[in-house]
Specification:
Pathway: Lipid metabolism; fatty acid beta-oxidation. Its EC number is 2.3.1.155, 2.3.1.16. GO terms for molecular function: acetyl-CoA C-acyltransferase activity; acetyl-CoA C-myristoyltransferase activity. Helix 2 crosses helix 3. This protein has 16 helices and 12 strands. The chain is α+β, with helices and mostly antiparallel strands and 448 residues long.
Length: 448
C-alpha cells in the first residue's frame, strides 16, 4: 500500500512538474516572441515601396597627406586614378560593368577640368563609360554620390562609381586680368614679323610661352597616356585606405599627437593676437582622393557582392553665408531625420565633417539651443546634439586631413564600416560647405 501511495505521489509530482515545465516553455516562447517583435520594430528598414534599394558596395581612399609632401610632384588625376584602381582591385569589378562615373573636385586643374574622365581612362575603364565632374565645395563628393543614387533610382544606371579628389600641392595661380588679356592678344600674332613688332623682348618671351602652353594643353591627354607621370602601385591595408605612389605611401601623414598644453601654446593663424583658429584646431591643407562603388541592390546581389550599407534619404540645405557659413549640419540633420521618419536617438553612428573645431562647437551649440531652433529654424524646440560617444569616434577631418572634394566619400565609407563593427543600424553623415551650404544623409547597415 505504501508503495502504491508512493507511486501515486511520484506520478502526481511528475504531472505537476510537467505542467509547470510546459507553462514555463510557453511563457518563454511568448517572451521570446515579444522580444523578437520589439527587436524587429526597433530595427525597421527604411526601404520604400516602388523605390529601388541603392547600396554602397565598398569604398576606398588614398592616404591623406599634407600638401607639399610625397604627392607634391603628381597631379589630381594621378590621385583619382589611384583611388579608382584601388576600388577595382578591392571589389574585383569588371571595368566594363560600370555604367557611369562621377567625381567631385573643388580647385580644378585647367589641363584636366573633367578630372573624372581623365582619371577613368587612366584607370582602364571602358572609353564607352561616360564620366563627369561636379563641384560643391567641401560636399563635392557628397554631390557625386547623390548624383549616383539619382541615376540608379531613376533607372538610368545599375552601377556607378563616385568619388572626389583634391590636390592642394599645386593650385592654379592666375595672373591679373590685364596680363591675361595681353597674353591672349599676343597669341593672335600670326607671323614672325607681327611678333617682332612687339615693343620688347619680354613680350616676345610671353608670346612664346603662351604658344607652348596652348600646344601642351591641346595634346595633354596624349602626353598623359605616353608619359604616365607617377604610375601608382597598389596594395591594400585594413579599412578603406589603399597604398599608393612611387614612394609607396601606406598611411596618412598629417596626424599630430599633442597634449592640451602643447596645443594651448600655438599662436592664432589669422587674427592676431586674440584669434582662436590655430594649426591644432583646423583641418590642414591636404592632398587625397576617394572612390565608392554604388549599385542597385538587385545588380549587386546578381554580381555576387555583399553590400556594406544602404544609402537612404539625403538633403541639401543653404543659409546666409554672412553669419551662418558653416552651420549646414545643424539645418540638414533634422530635415533628413524627418524625411526618414527617425529621431536623433535612432542614430547609432554620427560622422560630421570637421572643418575647424570652432565650426563643430558652433554646430553642437546651435543644435542644443532652443533659442536658435525657434529664432532661425522655425522649430518649437532645439534640434538636439549627437552624443559624443557616437560622434566621429574613428577620427575626423581635423586629425585625418581634409582633401576638400574627397571627404564626403570618406565619411560615408566610415559610417558603413562603423555600423558593421559596432552592430548599429543607422548612421548619419553631415557636412558644411563654403557658401553657407550643407548636406546630410542617412545610411542603413546592410543585414549581416
Amino acid at each position: 500500500m505504501q508503495i502504491a501511495e508512493r507511486l501515486m505521489s511520484l506520478s502526481l509530482i511528475r504531472t505537476v512538474l510537467l505542467t509547470a515545465f510546459s507553462f514555463c516553455l510557453a511563457a518563454r516562447s511568448l517572451s521570446t516572441s515579444v522580444h523578437l517583435q520589439a527587436q524587429a520594430k526597433s530595427k525597421k528598414t527604411l526601404a520604400k515601396s516602388g523605390v529601388k534599394n541603392v547600396v554602397l558596395v565598398d569604398g576606398v581612399r588614398t592616404p591623406f597627406l599634407l600638401s607639399g609632401t610625397t604627392y607634391a610632384d603628381l597631379m589630381p588625376h594621378d590621385l583619382a586614378r589611384a583611388a579608382l584602381q584601388g576600388l577595382l582591385k578591392r571589389t574585383g569589378l569588371p571595368k566594363d560593368a560600370v555604367d557611369y562615373i562621377v567625381y567631385g573636385t573643388v580647385i580644378q586643374e585647367v589641363k584636366t577640368s573633367n578630372v573624372a574622365r581623365e582619371a577613368a581612362l587612366g584607370a582602364g575603364f571602358s572609353d564607352k563609360t561616360p564620366a563627369h565632374t561636379v563641384t560643391m565645395a567641401c560636399i563635392s563628393s557628397n554631390q557625386a554620390m547623390t548624383t549616383a543614387v539619382g541615376l540608379i533610382a531613376a533607372g538610368q544606371c545599375d552601377a556607378v562609381v563616385a568619388g572626389g579628389v583634391e590636390f592642394m600641392s599645386d593650385v592654379p595661380i592666375r595672373h591679373s586680368r590685364k596680363m591675361r588679356k595681353t597674353m591672349l592678344s599676343l597669341n593672335k600674332a600670326k607671323t614672325l614679323g607681327a611678333r617682332l613688332s612687339l615693343q620688347n623682348c619680354e613680350k616676345i618671351a610671353i608670346a612664346l610661352l603662351v604658344f607652348f602652353i596652348i600646344v601642351v594643353e591641346t595634346i595633354f591627354h596624349t602626353l598623359f597616356l605616353l608619359i604616365q607621370l607617377a604610375d601608382c602601385c597598389l596594395n591594400f591595408k585594413c579599412g578603406d585606405v589603399i597604398v599608393t605612389g612611387r614612394d609607396i605611401v601606406s598611411k596618412d601623414n598629417g596626424i599630430r599627437p599633442a597634449t592640451m598644453e602643447q596645443m594651448a601654446k600655438l599662436k592664432p593663424a589669422f587674427i592676431k593676437p586674440h584669434g582662436t583658429v590655430t594649426a591644432a584646431n583646423s583641418s590642414f591643407l591636404t592632398d587625397g582622393a576617394s572612390a565608392v562603388l554604388i549599385m542597385s541592390e538587385e545588380k549587386a546581389l546578381a554580381m555576387g557582392y555583399k553590400p556594406k550599407a544602404y544609402l537612404r534619404d539625403f538633403v541639401y540645405v543653404s543659409q546666409d553665408p554672412k553669419d551662418q557659413l558653416l552651420l549646414g549640419p545643424t539645418y540638414a540633420t533634422p530635415k533628413v531625420l524627418e524625411k526618414s521618419g527617425l529621431t536623433l536617438n535612432d542614430i547609432d553612428v554620427f560622422e560630421f565633417h570637421e572643418a575647424f573645431a570652432g565650426q563643430i562647437m558652433a554646430n553642437l551649440k546651435a543644435m542644443e539651443s532652443d533659442w536658435f531652433g525657434q529664432t532661425y529654424m522655425g522649430r518649437k524646440t532645439k534640434v538636439g546634439a549627437p552624443p559624443m560617444e557616437k560622434f566621429n569616434t574613428w577620427g575626423g577631418s581635423l586629425s585625418l586631413g581634409h582633401p576638400f572634394a574627397a571627404t564626403g566619400c570618406r565619411l560615408v565609407t566610415t559610417v558603413a564600416h562603423r555600423l558593421q563593427k559596432e552592430g548599429g543600424q543607422y548612421g548619419l553623415v553631415a557636412a558644411c560647405a563654403a557658401g553657407g551650404q550643407g548636406h546630410a544623409m542617412v545610411i542603413e547597415a546592410y543585414p549581416q
